[in-house]
Task: inverse folding
């Protein structure tokens, strides 16, 4: 296949190497194409192998990358997707498949006109493995390969096609989900990262900072587990209120094989592929501070947790933990996405919410996703 990968970060570089090794013609879109050499080093920690891979093309010219491709895979952060897709759709044929990897963040709303014209969109619940750049444009490392993946399509009947692609690219057993809402509600980074950040920084004073900041996963706290379990329970309750098949939106307690906050803490701390991952931070005046420009903040709150809360509002459902975490985040960055009573605030038009696309009742949700 001729495949365009949009985004040359950890995930984009990793899957570009993996699909090239499968024999596909891969073109990688990067704003820093000049930092790539002729080859990149692909390292698989699980298999203890390392090899050089030559991509077909690495370019900052979007038209050059996407024109004439069979598949476009989007790996850029959620906040950058809308502007990017407005440039992509005029350049590709309606028969070109578009895959969001992962497919969370409300990305399906940006594709409405493309789908109505006959296009097909895929989205995965999660990515295929942990990806790290050892050196940008030169060396990428993959580890912790998943044993199973879940994907959905719009229109939903193309789910099997998405499943077959994922399995052929990454050799991972894949399940086609019955609807795309099962991807949107994935209890992953939108509640995983936000619960940890809240537990770490809810006492943060910009005038003081910290002497040190714990590792993100390896030093996971009991408080973070308690917040995560509460957020996870609110997502599960929302799934019960919407009359769609959302059985594949699995609780994180099941995902991490845990029964309580202590077991969850111990499980997350012990995951080998998470070892050594730092918390996003900057240094000022000799003190450590949270990096509010990190994707953990700029993607997982406005394009993750806030979208889940918007759906909860449609369901007229109380979400005390979402409210607490969102309220803290808004105060931290000086925004009002949601008002004090959790209605849409003055800054809500800056992000993607279902209400902006005439999805305002449970019936609207069902109609849009089934």
Result:
């Amino acid at each position: 296949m001729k495949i365009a990968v949009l985004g040359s970060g950890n995930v984009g570089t990793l899957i570009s190497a993996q699909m090239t090794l499968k024999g596909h013609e891969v073109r990688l879109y990067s704003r820093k194409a000049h930092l790539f050499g002729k080859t990149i080093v692909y390292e698989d920690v699980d298999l203890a192998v390392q090899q050089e891979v030559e991509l077909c093309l690495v370019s900052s010219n979007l038209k050059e990358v996407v024109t004439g491709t069979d598949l476009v895979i989007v790996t850029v952060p959620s906040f950058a997707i809308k502007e990017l897709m407005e440039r992509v759709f005029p350049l590709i044929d309606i028969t070109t498949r578009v895959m969001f990897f992962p497919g969370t963040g409300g990305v399906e709303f940006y594709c409405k006109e493309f789908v109505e014209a006959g296009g097909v969109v895929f989205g995965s619940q999660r990515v295929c493995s942990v990806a790290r750049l050892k050196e940008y444009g030169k060396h990428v490392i993959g580890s912790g390969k998943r044993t199973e993946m879940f994907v959905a399509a719009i229109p939903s009947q193309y789910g099997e096609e998405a499943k077959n692609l994922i399995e052929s690219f990454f050799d991972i057993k894949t399940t086609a989900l019955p609807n795309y809402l099962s991807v949107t509600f994935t209890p992953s980074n939108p509640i995983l990262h936000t619960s940890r950040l809240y537990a770490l920084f809810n006492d943060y004073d910009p005038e003081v900072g910290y002497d040190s900041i714990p590792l993100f996963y390896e030093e996971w706290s009991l408080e973070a587990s308690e917040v995560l379990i509460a957020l996870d329970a609110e997502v599960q309750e929302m799934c019960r209120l919407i009359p769609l098949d959302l059985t594949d939106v699995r609780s994180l307690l099941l995902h991490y094989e845990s029964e309580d906050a202590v077991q969850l803490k111990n499980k997350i701390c012990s995951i080998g592929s998470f070892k050594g991952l730092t918390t996003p931070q900057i240094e000022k005046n000799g003190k450590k501070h949270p990096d509010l420009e990190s994707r953990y903040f700029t993607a997982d709150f406005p394009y993750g947790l806030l979208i889940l809360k918007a759906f909860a509002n449609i369901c007229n459902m109380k979400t005390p933990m979402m409210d607490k975490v969102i309220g803290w985040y808004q105060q931290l960055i000086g925004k009002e996405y949601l008002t004090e009573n959790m209605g849409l605030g003055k800054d809500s038009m800056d992000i993607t919410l279902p209400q902006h696309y005439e999805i305002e009742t449970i019936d609207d949700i069902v109609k849009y996703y089934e």
About this structure: The mean pLDDT is 95. The radius of gyration is 20 Å.
